């Protein structure tokens, strides 16, 4: 099959109006099977695609169409891929990263927003969007005086619809809770999964950290905060099932390291762990990973954990994007987790280290850890 | 096995009532002006939270509180409670074992159905594969029936004072009602409570309006289903026999959410597996009346066909034996 851009390149005679006609009526990035054409139109000395696909060069150069102001890049992306990217324009000796002006799809994260390419077969899961038929839970907030940190900490709590004080609820503690709410649509996801009976009615406590590099890198103070102080406060405020199998802990990236660390240092506290794209950086030789010294604390913890994983929980759900560099660390961790006898489930997706990847894995992860009554309940 | 048939009033099966209820209209069509006995035991500990239901029916409901009554029975009769608990464990285990075999048998059905050939040989194999599944389903129902009959013979729950006392009260409440409304919820819990108090006999000739799990529990067989669960294969499974107040119809509530009705293979799979029973998807607004030997559907009630289509439940279904018995006893 001849690609549209190749055919156009052959036919192009140098008239700007021809480019207008080529672009009009097509949406970009242009998908032709699993081949994708990215374009940029404008003056530049160089245009590059900045993406976060591990395994490809981190920036890929566009080609200028003859002497025109149209730049293009043809890329083969497998089915079900989802790629976040920016365009890197080099003009007047300066680089400028912009979102793709021709692509309305955008994903947000704490650093701003990226353009999103959705490959063949990928669709934003319907259950991630607010559903007006779903009963809505409430978000409450409380502060607790943390003796571990010697300061007040705020915890947000998702309280499911139809909450009753006379019931005992399972609970999930979430690292980077505000980001999960903002960038992964956690509230709508919980509303939908609970309303569809795919997970049980759940209390979800969401913590945040002002200094993730210090606190999420297997910090004993943070472990204490998560595994002792937050649970104690939750038990004071909410009717929670005390059985460890009713307690879950989750996090993404460094939040997954913090999750594993808190559970490992407090075995028997959390029965269920959800680890998303964990930064499980380790070394087989020496103490320093190629990523640099800022990872030393994580490396130290992960090396210790890998030597003696113990039984930090009963069930673990691990997920990672195939396009992340951390896929190596996550795949490497898997046999170690499985050898412990814990119940381990693993999922991969053609996605990167980003919030929408983590959002998209919530249904399969949460519903496996917290089994909902959908087979038995027909309201 | 045969059933004692009592004289009965109509049974009306409705789609889900939470978002767009039609229960009040249905009761009006039935000419019900008096009190309505409500069964919300499927809501379990939320049983008493029936304000919306009561309001929808202009405050005419009286909740039979079967869930609470069962809790009282188990509290006052620890022997029965322990035996019941043990039976639940057995039922759960039987379901797990059945599911294991079912997954493999259904995989065979699907693999065969996915083959593109249109040969007689393939059709024979598909039919044989469905037959294996049907035998598995029947075997499971029989095992569960034995578990229940063993329990009933051993513990005779209806004759125990703890249950008899509640039944006396229930008879009195029902004698002042003109109809019974059975809500959905947890179908196994609901069925358990209905059985515990011998609902089939208690209800007499009163019209029954049931929806979601309520409709499922009154059927001859209770089929659990979800085509796209987040885990597992999505194989519909037999739970156990229902109260058998009507036959032939398998109500499938929340079909829009639970069934892939746009997938002809999936539709065929359900229709052929459960034939001669008719799979009836029940969504908001659906309304099916079973009165005597026939079923009448108010538009737009549908049925699944073996050809993978969704058709209006119509004349072809009239005359089917849809009626079971309200005083069902295995003999």
List the helices and strands and how they pair.
The complex is a heterodimer of chains A (about 375) and B (about 325).
Chain A (H helix, E strand, L loop, with lengths): L3 H8 L4 H8 L6 E3 L2 E7 L4 E6 L7 E3 L1 E2 L5 E7 L5 E10 L2 E5 L7 E4 L2 E7 L19 E9 L4 E9 L11 E4 L2 H7 L2 H10 L7 E4 L5 H4 L4 H18 L9 E6 L1 H12 L6 E5 L19 H12 L7 E7 L5 H13 L3 E7 L5 H6 L1 H8 L7 E2 L1
Parallel strand pairs in A: 13-14, 13-15, 15-16, 16-17, 17-18
Antiparallel strand pairs in A: 1-2, 2-6, 3-4, 3-7, 5-6, 7-8, 7-10, 9-10, 11-12, 12-14
Helix pairs in contact in A: 6-7
Chain B lengths: L10 E4 L8 H7 L5 E5 L11 H6 L4 E3 L2 H11 L1 H37 L5 H36 L5 H15 L1 E6 L2 E2 H10 L2 H4 L5 E4 L1 H6 L2 E4 L12 E5 L7 E5 L1 H4 L5 H11 L3 E5 L4 E5 L2 E5 L3 E3 L5 E3 L19
Describe this entry's structure for a reader.
The complex is a heterodimer of chains A (379) and B (331). By secondary structure, chain A is of the alpha/beta class. Chain A folds into 2 domains: 4-118, Sandwich (Immunoglobulin-like), CATH 2.60.40; 126-369, Alpha/Beta hydrolase fold, catalytic domain (Rossmann fold). Chain A is 28% helix and 28% strand. Chain A has helices at residues 4-11, 16-23, 177-183, 186-195, 212-215, 220-237, 254-265, 296-307, 327-339, 355-360, 362-369, and strands spanning 30-32, 35-41, 46-51, 59-61, 63-64, 70-76, 82-91, 94-98, 106-109, 112-118, 138-146, 151-159, 171-174, 203-206, 247-252, 272-276, 315-321, 343-349, 377-378. In chain A, the strands form 3 sheets. Chain A has an 8-stranded mixed beta sheet, sandwiched between helices. In chain A, strands 3, 4, 7, 8, 9 and 10 form a 6-stranded antiparallel beta sheet that branches. A 4-stranded antiparallel beta sheet of chain A has the order 1-2-6-5, with no helix packed on it. Chain A starts with a helix and ends with a strand. The model of chain A has no long low-confidence stretch (mean pLDDT 96). By secondary structure, chain B is of the alpha/beta class. Chain B has one domain (11-317): Class I glutamine amidotransferase (GATase) domain (Rossmann fold, 3-Layer(aba) Sandwich). Chain B contains 11 helices and 14 strands. In chain B, the strands form 4 sheets. Chain B has a 7-stranded mixed beta sheet. Chain B has a two-stranded antiparallel ribbon with strand order 7-8. Chain B is globular. The A-B interface holds A 133, 162, 164, 166-167, 193, 196, 198, 363-364, 367-368, 371, 373-379 and B 16, 18-19, 42, 45-46, 49, 184-189, 212-213, 216, 224, 226, 229-231, 237, 253-254, 257.
